[in-house]
Amino acid sequence: PYEPWKAFVYKDFELNTLLIDMDMGGIKLVGGVRGFTTPESSSDDYAYGTGFKGALELTVVPNITVQAVALFGKTPEGEGSHRYWFADAKLLLKSGIPIIPGVIGLNGFGGGAYYNMELVTDLPEFSPSEADEDPEEGAAWDLLDDIPATLSSLRYSPYKPTTGDVIGVKATIVLGTHPNAATANLDLTLD
User: N or C, which end of the chain has less CB nearby within 10 Å?
Assistant: First the structure.
């Protein structure tokens, strides 16, 4: 007898990207998760292998923004293959907490951790045209597209020492002119 349900056979399923963009009036949530596979000799000379990266930005209008990013991966198979990860989070306060009222305020803080990764010494280049842009606008989308990018603008690559593992933590404070940090602001990160 003819069995039509046997004509269809499941072969494979792959989910590469999952995005979220919600606006519920006073609360906005933007972000997503993206899988990746890089060749052993990728264009930036770092073999990230396979893994996934997630980034979220939660804004409670009008004053609070919480950002988070995490990366989990495994370097290409072979000698020296290892797992690695990093996680980063930051809380930003639009009006800030005055340290010296009318002069400087604390506009946020954050922290992170990483495992079997090392700092890439190439710092991002600054261009004057970027100075006028809101540095936080679209941050979650941008972080998904750039595998090594973190919230602190530092970049990490997979690294496995010959013995043991590498574990690191970092802390960040965000300072700015008070009451309006748009005039000048500064992120200080201790790694």
Answer: N
Taking Cα atoms as reference points, which of 14, 78, 69, 72 lies closest to residue 48? 72
The closest alpha carbon to 31, from 135, 108, 115, 145, belongs to 145
Residue pLDDT tens, the chain, 191 long: 667 766 666 677 777 889 999 999 999 999 999 998 876 555 554 678 889 999 999 999 888 999 999 999 998 877 778 899 999 999 999 888 999 988 999 999 999 999 999 888 665 565 554 444 444 455 677 788 888 888 877 888 898 888 888 899 999 999 999 888 888 888 888 88
Six-digit token pair at 62?
């009008």
Q: In the numeric block, which tokens belong to residue 100?
A: 């010296």
Q: What pTM does this model have?
A: 0.79
Task: Single out the residue of 149, 92, 139 nearest to residue 117, CA to CA.
Answer: 149
Kindly report the length of the chain: 191
